[in-house]
Please model this.
Amino acid sequence: MTTVNAYAASEASSKLEPFTYELDDLGANQVDIKVEACGICHSDISMLDNEWGMTEYPFVPGHEIVGIVESKGDAVTHLEVGQRVGVGWHSGCCMHCTQCMKGDHNLCSTAEQTIVGRHGGFADRVRVNGTWAIPIPDSVDPVSAGPLFCGGITVFNPLVQLGIKPTDRVGVIGIGGLGHMALMFLNKWGCEVTAFTSSDSKAEEARKMGAHRIVNSRDDDALEAEAGRFNLILSTVNVSLNWDAYINALAPKGKLHNVGAVLEPIPVGAFSLIMAQRSISGSPVGSAATIADMLEFSGRHQIQPIIETFPMSKVNDAIEHLKAGNARYRIVLTNN
Model:
């Protein structure tokens, strides 16, 4: 038996309190990871508050995990004890369905999710399937690496899935926890990058992150002036937008791609899509292989999320800081 010391909520929207639980014997395909750091994602907050109706309590959040392999099952041959790894939204998959066999492990219909029906990384250790413990290259800063495993891969995956080219013009809606990483990736990908932001105060920061152009997303005239420009517009926000204006800003065959979890339906007229062969799409986090590629790309170009750190013991303070909208731009909890 392995003892885990964690922080858990006993009910929806409650404070996290110290929580101890026991793990059974390690499975052949599993690894135990000593948690060094864990990012806080808005998905942790949504799960904490049971916004999606699937949270089980006591609930231990945390799915942007960085740590050291402490022990491993006999079937885990690609990792070594003492190796630094990261874990994101997924902690397991079936490995035999059509999607897994095609390499789309993140689309496995029975995939295990790190904080759904199990305990996550706001703890001193966590157990996952070895497939989803991704080695972190030495070129990637381990403290800031955690947010790459959810927020980072969420905005990196569309570049791979949609075949984005260095010659493409790409817009990013929302310069926050997801959007600021999208600007960094797209700039190094070689694209012309436009930041759509409602905050004038973020304009100079967005340029430093990689944006070549800034458009005020609250200015309808400014949006109209972008008509027909973009091969891709990546929406990272979870609120309703001036959808017609953004669709009109797409070039022929352009895509409006959603990675922000907008709960309201997106109203769109068919002809605005048909006549210029435009489309609306979305994607989740990426496969384990795509995460590994993202980490290599990040290390090569020295891309790292902009973070604030809190000790794990101050987790409730960190959550309140995030809920207040004060995070710039991701929060990482550290086990010192």
Q: What stands out?
A: The chain has eleven helices and 17 strands. The CA atoms of residues 97 and 108 lie 7 Å apart. Residues 288-301 form the longest helix (14 residues). The mean pLDDT is 97.
